[in-house]
């Protein structure tokens, strides 16, 4: 395990100490300053690295899905079809659905990007990434997903997938991020989620009817491609609907995505 700030403690033990000191009101000012610097460096590196990429679609889903699972093959097909249409693909960089997305992107000839996260277990970078970034902080990683993607496809997943979906939903609902396609793949999995929103949140006036309209349920790769291509065409996203043209040296497209609608404002 990597060391924390060159000291004699592991990062894991240091993070536990941070939580304990925060609860006790004895946070270490020097360690807090170091964390601020690390957060800043992760944001700067992410912005500088991902700025040339675009337009991009993020694909979320479980890391635990094996390659033999139908969802893995469908995610691979979705990514490949979007890649052939000229869209870069961004995943969380791990296994399961994330691996399928990166593999499909490569097969479709578009940039395959992974935003990896340091975890004590489970997360391992898949080998199908042209560009791989590693983050320590979940919130910085989610910022990069949302800032550099104009559409999202969410496959079945666990707590991490739901966290990403709900963070995105909150930003769209509150206007912090503009409206964009949020496609929930697989009605059987997502129907109870939407029913909870309908029967509990909407019925209790905790959300408005418009909040449910930010989601669309899709059942096959053709529906995903059709909805995303239509949105891209309507918003005149550069490169939409044509073959990707990755740079020969880096494997990444050099089209800027600063004109993509709905990005997190500077």
What's the SSE blueprint?
Elements: H1 11-24, H2 29-50, E1 56-60, H3 70-84, E2 88-91, H4 97-108, E3 112-117, E4 131-135, H5 138-147, E5 151-154, H6 159-173, E6 182-185, H7 187-202, H8 209-212, E7 216-218, H9 221-234
Parallel strand pairs: 1-2, 1-5, 2-3, 3-4, 5-6, 6-7
Global morphology: globular
Radius of gyration: 19 Å
How many strands in all?
7
Supply the helix-strand structural class.
alpha/beta
Helix content: 40-55%
Could you give the distance between the termini?
35 Å
Q: Give start-end ranges of low-pLDDT stretches.
A: 1-9, 240-262
Enumerate how many helices there are, as a single number.
Answer: 9
* Largest beta-sheet characterization: 7 strands, parallel
Instruction: Give the neighbour order of strands across the main sheet.
Output: 4-3-2-1-5-6-7
What fraction strand?
5-15%
SSE string, helix = H, strand = E? HHEHEHEEHEHEHHEH
Q: Whole-number average pLDDT? A: 84
Description:
The protein is α/β, with parallel strands linked by helices and 266 residues long. It has 9 helices and 7 strands, in the order H-H-E-H-E-H-E-E-H-E-H-E-H-H-E-H. A 7-stranded parallel β-sheet has the order 4-3-2-1-5-6-7, sandwiched between helices. Strand 5, helix 6 (159-173) and strand 6 (182-185) form a beta-alpha-beta unit. Helix 3 (70-84) runs parallel beside helix 4 (97-108) and helix 3 runs parallel beside helix 9 (221-234). The longest helix is centred in the N-terminal third of the chain and has 22 residues, at 29-50.
